[in-house]
Amino acid sequence: MDIVIERMGAGGDGIAAGPIYVPRALPGERVRVHPGARRGDGQAAALEAVLEPSPDRVPPPCPHFDQGCGGCAVQHWAPAAQAGWKRARLAEALSRAGFPDAPVAPTIATEPGHRRRADLALRRTPRGAIAGLHVAGSAEVLDLATCAVLDPRLVALLPPLRTMLASLSALKREGSAVVNLLDTGPDLLLRTDAPLQAGDRMLLARFAEREGLARIAWARGAGTPEIAAQHAAPTIALSGVAITPPPGAFLQASPQGEAAIIAAVLAALPAKLKGRGRIADLHAGLGTLSIPLAARGRVAAFESDAGAVAALAAAAGRAGVPVTATRRDLDRQPLEPSELTGFAAVVLDPPHGGAPAQVPLLARSAVPLVVYVSCNPAALSRDGRAFAQAGWRVAAATPIDQFVHSAQMEAVVAFAR
């Protein structure tokens, strides 16, 4: 049937009346679709033809996009339109939270080809090993030959990685690989479905040496990683401080995205912090924000991952940065209002699910400023409601498009009393 796409959904699908969800369709387009199964409150449909294209439709830069690669959702949409969509999503999320007039800045865009982390699915097939991303909405793995989003150094690692995996006995049927691009080169965490044999360790050591990997870690399934091969200390500089992350550690998607987030967080702080200038950094990770925040005051960093806490504490100690790192699961043991007394500001960068346990306590605390870094507008909207109900205001809100060509987005929101 022929339909007109009315708007873009949160996942990057075009939505027509019904609602009908159409991947790869754009607002304003008249399209021919093949109706599919029920989807939530509406119906899914497959795009068969674009009868009247949007003026914002552009040729996708990656050949895998038309093959259904799930890594990107909107390569066919002009960058300016993507930026406007993400700004509107942040404004809508804050409006739902109770801030209809929040001051939302224009989207800060980042360039493709700089993403420094790849989460790859691995499969052994009759033709050999494949390494790539899932087809959207499917368990099928698309073997990546190229990528418009990843740093070219990670793309260049894919062919030799496949060749090595073909000889790795620990990969029987399927596994995964996380590759972080550090200053010392790619850092690889392999997870396989069989034990690592002595021959596998030799294979990994040769692969690391040949391809310039300082470290390869390995785990069976969801187990704790161990070091399988290491030639040097893997390091990355966060705001000028060298840190050795644990295998598979979380990094911001790109250096440009990281810089934009840091700039927005620092801009939200007052020129002079009250009291003794203490700042709490919650869900601090490796210290991506803790370290630059330390130039503005003394930082107490809280993080649940033991490896990240140890890495941050060691790096801050070596560099003489005023950061104390504490291991604490803020989902199970959030900071109480009494524990927040004396902090001039709190910076909060929770995982995708947000911080439903911590935010209500922050809203009731005496802290004058909370800077919330979000990667999920839905979680931000839910958490933001607690601030609205407690009488806070949004002092600044900045959308950041570091997840290029995807429906994901980053935002930095300053909540003030």
UniProtKB/TrEMBL annotation:
One of its GO terms (molecular function) is methyltransferase activity. Transmembrane segments: none annotated. GO terms for biological process: methylation. The active site is at residue 375. Keywords: 4Fe-4S, Iron, Iron-sulfur, Metal-binding, Methyltransferase, S-adenosyl-L-methionine, Transferase. Coiled coil: none annotated. It comes from the Bacteria. PROSITE patterns: SAM_MT_RNA_M5U. S-adenosyl-L-methionine binds at residues 252, 303, 349. InterPro entries: NA-bd_OB-fold (IPR012340), SAM-dependent_MTases_sf (IPR029063), U5_MeTrfase_fam (IPR010280). Belongs to the class I-like SAM-binding methyltransferase superfamily. RNA M5U methyltransferase family. This is Class I SAM-dependent RNA methyltransferase. It comes from Roseomonas nitratireducens. The lineage of its organism: Bacteria, Pseudomonadati, Pseudomonadota, Alphaproteobacteria, Acetobacterales.
